[in-house]
Amino acid sequence: MNTPELDYRKPMQWGEIDPYRRGRAHVGMWAWLLQRVSAVFIVLLLILHLCFTYKPYVQFLLLLAVTLHASLGIRVILLDFNLAKICSARRLVPWTLGLGLTAALIAWFAIY
């Protein structure tokens, strides 16, 4: 049996930057990173919300941060409990974010 030669790229050296790193990054990595950043923003906005209780812009930013965090969390739940196929993981990000943003805007305009 003849196996064709595989064309491997040479290993990267210390300090070398991969020019294709963004293209090779999976959407799950970006979703994970965005969820962690939103968690930090939630903590900061909660502190601001306690200091400036009736400022609508602080409340709106807090609502957006919680919506982003919750939408990405719902994506993880759908994937972890096999409620969505793993091949649809890339499409789940815009769908969950879109549905979360729609729900947040409906809630915002219902309150204000």
TrEMBL record:
Keywords on record: Heme, Iron, Membrane, Metal-binding, Transmembrane, Transmembrane helix
Highest taxon of the lineage: Bacteria
Subcellular localization(s) per the UniProt record: Membrane
Cited InterPro entries: SQR/QFR_C/D, SuccDH_FuR_B_TM-su
One MF annotation (Gene Ontology) recorded for this entry: metal ion binding
Main location: membrane
Transmembrane segments: 30-50, 56-80, 92-111
Annotated GO CC locations: membrane
Protein name in UniProt: Succinate dehydrogenase
Species name: Desulfovibrio porci
